[in-house]
Amino acid sequence: MALRLFEGNDHAAAYLQYRVSPHELICMIMTTWRQWARNDPVGSVLHQGFGTDVSRAQLKMAVANSIPPNVSYRQCPAEELPFASGEVDLVTAMTAAHWFDRQKFLLEADRVLRPGGCLALLSYSMDMELEYGDVSNALNDICKEFYAALLPFRNPYLGSSSVKIYSDMFDSCPYPDKEWNECLRVKRITPLSGYIGMVETFSSYQILQQKDPAEAERLSNEARTRLMSAMKVSSPDAEVTVVVKYFYWLACKP
Question: Care to name a GO molecular-function term for this sequence (predicted)?
């Protein structure tokens, strides 16, 4: 296990409230996995699903919110999965693998996957965009300044690029059948306050908030005020289209 983050109850609640669930991306992954599988996919992913997380707060939030009857949760590091060797059909991690001990995780995923099983890793870049009428460019200039102000607080474990982390993991995966996807733009209509709330869940903002709460609040308020002014609206409840740029890769175990 590399790092432990997102463990506060308030942060876990904000994560659930503001992060985007890319259902269309999940459908694409499931379709690709079924195409790759040599046998009918009848294992854990269809009959029994398991969600794992090292954070007790994140698991508590998951359990409290609409659990399908065939899904259960377990607390554990991603590098120490509680499954027998060759027991699992699909291993996936959403916006999380960049925090793992990456080589240990890849070895552990290989251990638990059955032959024909699939590994799918997903995340997105921080440079989300906003669309709103004819002022989209102005909004995105403001967003870029917001992101730039948070960049000095990026955790050094992540390096300069999350895309590179996943690309390096993809390159190190020895499976011959694998697929890299650089960018899938997922759009969601949300109140402007929802966009601000999403940025506030990022680890860089959380680090700033811990070090200097007043400065973190000032940055959020400034971005919110400038965006509202550019949109010519008087309330942060005004809706805007958020464009999240996902990247992901899949690999099928021989």
Answer: S-adenosylmethionine-dependent methyltransferase activity
78 vs 1: CA distance, rounded Å: 7
Q: How far apart are CA 19 and CA 198, in angstroms?
A: 6
Supply the range of the domain harboring residue 122: 9-252
- How confident is the model over 89-119, as pLDDT tens digits? 899 998 899 999 999 999 999 999 999 999 9
Q: How far is it, in rounded angstroms, from Cα 180 to Cα 173?
A: 11
Res. 16 pLDDT band, cuts 50 70 90: low
**What single-letter amino acid sits at 238?**
A
How far apart CA 157 and CA 203 sit, in angstroms, is 12
> Does residue 1 belong to any structural domain of this protein?
no
- 232 domain-assigned: yes
Report how far residue 169's alpha carbon sits from residue 174's, in angstroms, rounded to the nearest whole number.
Answer: 10
8 Å CB contact between 238 and 231: yes
3-state class of 242 per DSSP? strand
Total domains present in the chain:
1
- Tell whether 4 is covered by a domain: no
DSSP 8-state class, residue 79:
T
Side chain identity at 8, as an amino acid letter? G
Distance CA 34, CA 42 (A): 10
Q: Which of 143, 144, 46, 25 is nearest to 88 (CA)?
A: 46
- d(CA 95, CA 107) in angstroms, rounded, equals 19
Task: List the alpha helices (DSSP H) in 68-177.
Answer: 102-112, 136-150, 162-172
Cα separation of the two ends of the chain? 26
Q: Within a domain: residue 234?
A: yes
Q: Is residue 69 classed as helix, strand or coil in its secondary structure? A: coil
